[in-house]
Design brief:
Elements lengths: L12 H9 L3 H23 L2 H17 L10 H21 L27 H20 L2 H12 L4 H8 L3 H20 L2 H4 L7
Helix pairs in contact: 1-2, 2-3, 2-4, 3-4, 3-8, 6-7, 6-8, 7-8
């Protein structure tokens, strides 16, 4: 078993899950370090592409973190996590194979042209104010993240650069960049949760 933190070497997965559910990010990081290699092998066996597999493992780990409170330990953590990885990979395959287009200006030959009434998607003044407030707090909290984590977060989640480009700019491996990105997201999520009492639930997307 791979151990990242020597202090947690003797702690079982079940105990780490309880600690992580209580808000201990170090415990969750240990769970990630233990099971990430297996998750990568599983994802690669499904997707047959190293980069796609690593991306979906990261997405699966993020979902596991978001939904950890729902894990009842009726199965092993590794089994639960593997299911999330498989689901992510299957969604990736379906997405890659799906190519449907909707033409709004063209009717089907021999059929009546249907007019689509598109809803007004403009923000209300209240929604605009709420988004502005959350955006301001988000920017402040991003700036408080340690530079090593903040840089990879900005390049990937703000500038939306591909992970190879992020790693190249920072002079680190792709694996290291993805590890830092996960840690940055965890820290930012924790920081934003402190503001929920004032702003309501602040939803962050990966």
């Amino acid at each position: 078993m791979r151990v990242h933190n020597p202090e947690l070497a003797g702690v079982l997965d079940d105990q780490l899950v309880v600690m992580a559910q209580g808000g201990d990010n170090v415990a969750f990081t240990e769970l990630v370090e233990r099971h990430q290699p297996t998750c990568k092998r599983l994802a690669l066996s499904i997707l047959r592409d190293q980069s796609d597999a690593e991306d979906e493992v990261q997405n699966a780990l993020w979902k596991a973190y978001e939904h950890l409170g729902q894990f009842q330990q009726d199965a092993k953590f590794s089994t639960w996590l593997s299911r999330i990885v498989v689901n992510q990979c299957l969604m990736r395959l379906r997405k890659d194979r799906r190519a449907k287009f909707l033409y709004l200006d063209e009717g089907v030959a021999g059929e009546e042209v249907v007019t689509l009434d598109l809803p007004d998607l403009a923000e209300t003044p209240e929604e605009a104010l709420a988004h502005l407030e959350i955006g301001t707090v988000l920017k402040t909290e991003i700036n408080r993240i340690p530079p090593m984590l903040r840089d990879v977060f900005l390049l990937r989640d703000v500038e939306e650069l591909p992970m190879p480009d992020v790693a190249s700019r920072l002079g680190i491996t792709i694996a290291a960049a993805k590890s830092r990105l996960l840690r940055a997201r965890l820290e930012l999520r924790e920081r934003m949760e402190k503001h929920q009492g004032r702003m309501g639930v602040a939803t962050l997307t990966a």
